[in-house]
Amino acid sequence: MIREAGARDHPTIHRLTEAAFGWDAEAHLIAALRASDDSVFDLVAEMDGDIVGHVLLSALAAPPGVLALAPVSVAPDHQRQGIGSGLIHHAIGRATAAGWSAIFLLGDPAYYTRFGFSLDAAESFETDYPREFFMALALKSDAFKSMPKKVEYPAAFRELG
Question: Model-level pTM?
Answer without folding.
Answer: 0.95
